[in-house]
Amino acid sequence: LSDTPNIFSAATLEKIVSRVFRAMGTPQDITDQVSHSLILSNLVGHDSHGIIRIMEYYGWVKSFDLNPIATPSISWSRGSSAFIDGAWGFGQPAAMLATREVISLAKNTGTASVVIGRSNHVGRLGEYVNEIANHGMLGISFCNAAATIVAPYGGAKPLMGTNPFAWAIPGTGEMNTVLDFSTALIAAGKVIHAAMSGEIIQSGALIDKDGNPSTNPNDLQNGGALLPFGEHKGSGLSVLIDVAAGALSGVLPAAIENTGHGNGTVIIAMDISNYVKIDIFKNIAEAFLVALHSTKAIDGPEVLMPGELEFRTKTLREKAGIHVSRGVQENILIVARELGVEIPEFD
Amino acid sequence: LSDTPNIFSAATLEKIVSRVFRAMGTPQDITDQVSHSLILSNLVGHDSHGIIRIMEYYGWVKSFDLNPIATPSISWSRGSSAFIDGAWGFGQPAAMLATREVISLAKNTGTASVVIGRSNHVGRLGEYVNEIANHGMLGISFCNAAATIVAPYGGAKPLMGTNPFAWAIPGTGEMNTVLDFSTALIAAGKVIHAAMSGEIIQSGALIDKDGNPSTNPNDLQNGGALLPFGEHKGSGLSVLIDVAAGALSGVLPAAIENTGHGNGTVIIAMDISNYVKIDIFKNIAEAFLVALHSTKAIDGPEVLMPGELEFRTKTLREKAGIHVSRGVQENILIVARELGVEIPEFD
Question: Is B209 on the interface with A (CB under 8 A)?
């Protein structure tokens, strides 16, 4: 790995990220969790949620929106519900604490939910529901994002965040079935990248400041908005996520309090073994996977289960390493220099 | 109402439906529940799930797929989980029993789930999650439909049912926020109607038997398939619903056992008052609704909350009555005659 330029092992990248966060004063256990979550996103192929986030998080630290030394805690836990206080620290440790708590509660009672308040970016929801599935449970999670960037279906102005939804169930072998999507049709990052590159955006993804359909990426920054996926259905999911996660968590919907950052997160777990033996459940999942693969057209592309591409990418990148562009490396080096951290791997 | 041809009050239609089911031997309490659920669908504007279903249900009774005298029961209930045995009777009473049980469990423990097995068509999921929201809770429900009619995203063959998903939270006044959608882009009924009428189908909704995009409605019956909404995201929702609801309920995914009928159903409830005072939650929902309405373009259509159109339609039809076409009336009269039931209202 070390001989290939700009390719790094996950372990090397985790060490680099750890050094940066430790220099912000972040405790070791919190540092380990955030570093692991970020690099896991790179491993499964979602580089937008990976090491690149260092710059954004450091910006929040400098603006006092993110307290790098905060530790999340369980505010209360009773019956089959609990509430996690993220203490406006990193969101990933709060979400993993919530995940462990919801699994523990669901083991005791059968079904449980945990809500996270005062939380920054929790990262990739797929990580948490996958962990729930690893424990033989069904996991559902959704969070609102407290920045107005998505217009509701038929609307002309931004109202909601990109409000992701994730759902996982146990699969065969080590591969669970993991669905994890933004309720926006395309990512804001893609629009910003297109604006920089002079490219146009696919139709149906964007409106301008007057609510007219647009393919010009510059319209997003000029009062326009992203559109939800799936017309009224995807828009409805985004609305439910925004109100439910925003109100339950106290982070509030962005339409009411547009802080520009913060995630209100809900995680639900159902213990499958109450309803059906886990081996039978996995056999059904396996038979479904085989049937799904067989729907491939003769000359068509493979048809994959939700999460199958991520599982393959992870297997591949664990061996071949993770590519980090020179541009990203240089941006991380700027942060590192400000914090007095050495990253010889990027020099 | 009685002077307007083909317009009937909800009470009149409920009485008509009751007479038909009672003549099949269905107990009074089950009859009341099914009649109410069907006509409630007409009231909220979803006529496809209303009185028209009598013909389909009677067909299942004659083929011994639906036992009209069966009564659902709670197989077990412990902690925050329960299982309802639909006994292969009508699905609506099983779903309403499950709804009452999940509300009761969530009141005790905070969060709960109930699964329904051996169930016929449960009808409109929106009815059940709306009832959960009436009790100050968040309700999520999904069910698989054991008939292969929808191809997965990128696939060339039908694999899944239309697998609906519903989600409700308390709103303002009597109007909750209620999302309820099929994961197919369009309803099978719409395709069948288009085939009868010689119309074409919107592009992106249908493929032919070779997996090619089609707008010819006849392709559905000739080995083609409906497509999911929202590309890979809606398709992923359908996959998760099919495996989770199919395996937990024992109804099985249609890809494994294509019975052509039956619903495996999951209902989840979260008691909101554990997390936030219900009045505060409703105030946030109200503020969000106002903000959403304000995203309307100057000359654009109204922008509505999920469930708002249904709420308005119900208010309207409670006063103005429900239209039942002569064709539907005549089909119901055929069933009635076979059962020896008089329906003077339709003569």
Answer: no
